[in-house]
User: Which sequence fits this backbone?
């Protein structure tokens, strides 16, 4: 049953994000101050996602450098920072609780499923996983044997279309600002 849910979670995570965004915009009661505070999480989340996208070569190699030397899931960590930053902007406890539930139900099985795939495809994964935490980052980069120093690649960033996260965040802030403006 866990494998079935993991497959379902992988398929619905993006559509559920759009559904949640709709619920979010309906329930959010932002203020300019809450929006400003949210930037403390949203901006680092966007940066981390963009930085990670410039390193990862999905399904082609086990990325162990750049942000992947600190956490095995910098893209998900960045997504969580963005999402909880926007939750802070909303000033809604219901949104925070729903978001935490959504992440637990969707991302825990997705991460486990992806790790099983990586373990089966890349023999170095177990050594990497022993050195690098799943989500909360290390303070210093791990040095995994046989890992070559990587460099950020702007073509990879573009290939993964990570600029969409920035455009989405900008659009959400614009809608929140309009809600504040038209509330009065």
Assistant:
């Amino acid at each position: 049953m866990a494998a079935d849910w993991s497959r379902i979670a992988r398929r619905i995570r993006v559509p559920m994000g759009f559904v949640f965004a709709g619920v979010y915009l309906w329930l959010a009661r932002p203020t300019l101050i809450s929006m400003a505070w949210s930037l403390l999480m949203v901006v680092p989340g966007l940066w981390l996602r963009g930085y990670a996208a410039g390193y990862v070569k999905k399904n082609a190699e086990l990325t162990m450098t750049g942000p992947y030397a600190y956490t095995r899931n910098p893209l998900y960590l960045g997504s969580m920072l963005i999402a909880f930053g926007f939750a802070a902007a909303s000033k809604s406890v219901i949104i925070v609780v729903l978001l935490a539930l959504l992440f637990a139900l969707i991302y825990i099985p997705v991460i486990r499923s992806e790790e099983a795939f990586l373990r089966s495809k890349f023999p170095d994964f177990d050594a990497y996983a022993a050195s690098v935490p799943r989500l909360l980052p290390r303070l210093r980069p791990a040095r995994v044997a046989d890992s070559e120093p990587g460099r950020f690649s702007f073509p990879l960033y573009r290939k993964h279309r990570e600029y969409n996260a920035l455009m989405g965040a900008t659009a959400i802030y614009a809608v929140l600002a309009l809600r504040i403006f038209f509330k009065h």
Remarks:
- Residues 93-121 form the longest helix (29 residues).
- The radius of gyration is 18 Å.
